Amino acid sequence: MRADEAHGVYRILRDADGASVHLRQAEPGWLIPGQNPLGLFYLRENVDELAAEFAGEIVGSLWPEDRPWGMYEFAISDPDATLIRVGRPTQLPARPPIEV
């Protein structure tokens, strides 16, 4: 990954495959054990493959699924309780028009 954008204490890192990580410096007192307010989203096409690799660490034992917010994803947590979501935009089939 390389730093593509820097805005004060905020950084955006991107790799050649299109993955990006948005980082911001944590303020003192933000990291409360088991209640970390920070998270990251790892945008990948191979969601199912990564879910299989991290099967024992998936939060809530939920395999990847289409979420109401338009992402096909699953989540894991790091040792500091940072929520890490792995996913891609939902690829639902087009719905036929509703006839009235």
Describe the structure concisely for a colleague.
Helix content is 7%, strand content 37%. The protein contains one helix and seven strands.
List descriptors.
mainly beta, 1 helix, globular, 2,3-Dihydroxybiphenyl 1,2-Dioxygenase, domain 1, 4-stranded mixed beta sheet, 37% strand, 3-stranded antiparallel beta sheet, single chain, 100 residues
Descriptive overview:
The protein has 100 residues and is mostly beta strands. The protein has a domain at 38-91: 2,3-Dihydroxybiphenyl 1,2-Dioxygenase, domain 1, CATH 3.10.180.10. The chain has one helix at residues 47-53, and strands at 2-7, 10-14, 20-24, 39-43, 65-66, 71-77, 83-89. The strands form two sheets. The protein has a four-stranded mixed beta sheet, covered by helices on one side. It has a three-stranded antiparallel beta sheet with strand order 1-2-3, with no helix packed on it. A hairpin with a 5-residue loop joins strand 6 and strand 7 (83-89). The protein is globular, with a radius of gyration of 16 Å.
Tell me the layout of helices and strands.
Elements (H helix, E strand, L loop, with lengths): L1 E6 L2 E5 L5 E5 L14 E5 L3 H7 L11 E2 L4 E7 L5 E7 L11
Parallel strand pairs: 4-7
Antiparallel strand pairs: 1-2, 2-3, 5-6, 6-7
The biggest beta sheet reads: 4 strands, mixed
CATH level 1 name of the domain at 38-91: Alpha Beta
Silhouette: globular
User: Which stretches are poorly predicted, pLDDT < 50 over at least 5 residues?
Assistant: none
Main sheet: which strands, in order across? 4-7-6-5
Strand content: 35-45%
Q: Determine the mean pLDDT.
A: 78
CATH homologous superfamily name of the domain at 38-91? Answer: 2,3-Dihydroxybiphenyl 1,2-Dioxygenase, domain 1
